[in-house]
Amino acid sequence: MFFLVRKSVLGSRDELQDLDFDVDELIIGSGHDSTVILDGLMAGALSIKALSDSHASFNCTQDLQLIMDNSENTSGTLNKGEIYQLGIYDIEVINAPAGFDFAINIIQSNRKSHVKKSTIKLKSRKSRLNLRIISYLAFISIILLFLLIPIYVPRDSALNKIFILSDKSWSSGPLAMAHRIPEISNDCQVCHVKPFEKVQDQQCLNCHRDLGNHVAENHPAVAELQQFLCQNCHKEHNEPPRITRSDDALCINCHREIEKFEKNNLTAGQTVESVKGFNADNHPFFRLSLLTPYAKDGTYEWLNNRPKFDINNPSQENSHLKFSHMVHLDVEMVQDESTGERLLCDDCHQLKSDKEHYQPISMDKDCRSCHQLTFDVFNPDVELPHGDLRAATIMLQAHYIREFTDPQLRQKRARKKIRRIPGKNNSLASCVGSGLDCGRAEALKEAEFQFNNSGCITCHEVTENDTPELLNKWFVKPIRINDDWYSKAHFDHSSHFSVKGQDKEEICLSCHEVQQSEHSSDIAMPQRNKCLECHQQGEDNTVELSCIRCHVFHFTKNGVD
Amino acid sequence: MHQNLLKYQKYRYLKFTLLLLIGSVILYLSQGQAQPANGGTVQGYVLGTVAAFLVLLLTYLGIRKRLYSSSTGTVEGWTSAHVFLGSALLLIATLHAAFQVGWNVHTLAYALMLMVIFSGFFGLFAYLHYPRILSQNNAGANQDVWLQELHEIDSKIKDLSSSCRGNIRLLLLSALEHTVLGDSLFSQLLGHDNSTVKLQSDTKKLVANTNQQQVIDIVAENMPSSINQAEASALNKILSLFSRRQILLKKIRRNLQIKAYLKAWLVFHIPLSIALIAALIVHILVVFIYW
Q1: Quick check: A147 and B281 CB within 8 A?
Q2: pTM
Q3: Structural domains of chain A sorted by starting position, each given as residue range(s) with its CATH number in brackets
Q4: Chain B interface test: which of A164, A169, A185 (most B C-beta within 10 Å)
Q5: Ranges of chain B whose pLDDT falls below 50
Q6: Interface predicted TM-score (ipTM) over 0.90
Q7: Going edge to edge, which strands form the sheet with A66-68?
Q8: DSSP class of A170
Q9: For residue A165, what pLDDT is reported?
Q10: pLDDT below 50 — which residues of chain A?
C-alpha cells in the first residue's frame, strides 16, 4: 500500500514535506524501526493500516494514545477529515492523492511536550551508593573487622583463625626471636592479660622462673628495684626485634649515685664506687674475682672474693700450680714438638663456645705430651697416674716390689745397662735383700725424689709430714686455676682477634703480658686502662661501649651482696 | 584563586608546616637510646599525638566549609592549612611509625592515610590545572549550547533520514539512539565513547560507533549508490551533520572528562578519610588495650 505522509519540517507549520511509503502498515514513532520518525514519542509507536482511502485502523503501542474529542484511544479507526492528537503532534486524515491508498498530515502543535526533547541525553549514572553511605560503610567495617570482632568473637572460633579478624592483627611489631613460639605468638593474652594494663612481671616470670637477681634478697636496693617492671628494660614488639634496653641510662641512673643504695650495707672501711660512663674519670678499676683456697673439714674449698684494685699492691693468684709462662714462651727452652718453633698461646688455651672463657688446662690435654710422668729409668714406658696421690704412691710401691720380687724381672733389671737421665732418680738396678724390702725402699726413694726434688714437685705444691707411711707422708695441694677473672662482666674474645696489622698471638700478648711472667701467681689480666685504649667514651676514633656490652643485670646466682 | 590557596597570607601555613616538620625530625632523631625508634617511645607518642590531632583538624575542613556563618578563619585559610598540614602529616606519621610497616591495623591506618594524602595531592593538582584546560575547551561556549545544537542536528538527521533507504535510515536512527554521553564516572574519566549502532534491522547486535566514525564511513560509502536524487541530497546533508555532530560530541565528552577529574578524587578522598578516622580509633585503642 502506498501511504502519503505530509509532515512539517523542524516543527514549522508552514514548511511541509511529502513523504511516500510503500508499506503494508505505516508506523509512526520515535524508534528507528518506525516508518515515520517523530521526535518526542519515546518508545511508543502508532501503526496505521489502511482500510480504504478514507478509513484506516490504528493501534498504539507502549503508553502512546490517540486523542479525539477528549477521548483517549489506543486502537480504533481513523476517518478522513478528522484530526487526532498524538503527543505534541496533530494527525489529520486528508484526501489521498491519486496513486496513494491513504494520506495523513502531521503537524507539530503548540502544545508543550510531555516527553523528552532529545534522544541524546547525558546518561551520567549516579552511583547507587553515594559518598556518605560509602564513608559510613567504610567506618563501620573497619571498627567491626579490626576492633569489635577481635574483642568479642570467642578465641576458639573459626573467625578468630582469620588473621585480620583476630587480635594478632593488633601486633605493633615483631616478637623477639626467643618469643616466637606458638604458645606466645598465637596467643597475645599470654602476656596481655588485662585490657589497658601494662604487661605485669608475673607474665614474664611464669616462664622465666630461674631468673637471676640483680642484687641479693637482703640488699638495701631491693626496695628501689621493685619499683621497676620487667617492661622498664625489656620492650617487646621492637623493630628490629631487640627486647633489652642497651642505653647507658639503664645502669647509670642508679649507679651514678650507688652509695645511696649501698648505705647501711657497708662494713667499716668499705666503699662503693659510682659509675657514670666508661672512661678514666667515670669508671672504677676492674675488680678481679680471686679464688682463695681454704681448708675445711679436711678438704680444700675455694672462696671467691673481689678485692679493690690496688696498683701498688697487685693481687696474686693462689692456684697451687707452679708454672712459668716465661719459660714456656722462650723458644730456647721450649719448642713446639712438630714445628720446633716457640709455643703459641692457643697451643694450650682453647676458647670455649661462649667466646669468653677458655677450656680448663689439664695435664692430659695440655702438658703430658711434653711432661710424661715416667719415673723408673729401667722402665721408661711406665708412667704414674695423674690427679690421684694415693693411686700414684700405691703404684710406685707396687711397681718396685714387683720389679724386685719377680725373679725374671729382677734378673732382667740387673742385666740392663741404662743411660742416666738428668732430672730422673737413679733407680737401683739391683738390690740385696728380699724383693719386698728392696721394692719398698726403692718406692720410698722414688717418692722422696718426686715430692722433694723433681717430678710432682715440679708443678705442684707439696707438704710433707713426719709419718713414716709412704701413703700419708706427702700431700699434694689441689690445683684450681681461675677461669673467670671478671665474674661480674663478660667479654667476647673472638671479636677482639681482628686487629689490623696484628696476628692472633700478638693480640693475645698485647692484653695478657705473660712473656716475663715467671710464676703462676702472676695475674696477667688487662685492667680498665687497657680497654680504654680502644673504648674510651667521649674520645674520637674509639669504639664506645654501652654498659651491657660488658655487664649483665640478672646474675646467675643471687646477685650482688 | 588557586594560587592564592597556597600563597595564603604570604605562605603562612607553609612556614608553620616547615617549623612543624623540623621539630618532628629533631624529636625523631632523639630516639634510639633506650629502644629502637618506634611509636611506643615518648617521642613516638608525641609524634603520634600530633599526627592524630592533624588528622582531625584536616577532616574538620569538611565541616568548616559548610559552616557559612562561622568566623573561625576563612575557608580559604582552612583550605591552605589543609594542603600544607596534610602534606606534613605524610612525614610526621612516617616518623611516628619509624618507617616500620607490617600486616597489622597500625599499617592499615598508615596506608589509608597515604591514600587520603595522595588523592588529596591529585585534587590539588586538579584544582590548579584543570579549570584552565576546561576554559580552553569551552572556548566561549558551554555544554548547554552544544547540547541544544546537538538536539537540532539530531532532529534534522531524523527528518532527512526519511528520504533514505530503509537500511540507511535504520543505521542513522540507530546511531542517534545509541549515542552515549556521560555514562559511568569511570568512562567519563577515561573519555571513553561507548556509542554503538545497529547495522541491520534483523539483528539485535550493536557494533561500536566510536566518534560516530562507523556511521560516517557507511554514509560516505553509500552516497555514490543513492537510489534517487533526494536520497543523494539527504545523505550529503546527513554526512555534514554527522561531521558536526562528531565535533560536538568530542567537545562535550572532553568537558565531561575534565569535570570528572575535578570531582573523581573526592570519591576516594572523602570515604578514605572517614575510613582513616576509624582505623585511627582502632590503632589508638588497641595500642592501649594491649599496652
Answers
A1: yes
A2: 0.64
A3: 2-108 (2.60.200.20), 367-476 (no CATH)
A4: A169
A5: 1-2, 140
A6: no
A7: A16-22, A2-8, A102-108, A89-94, A83-86, A66-68, A71-73
A8: G
A9: 81
A10: 10, 40, 42-43, 112-121, 124, 127-128
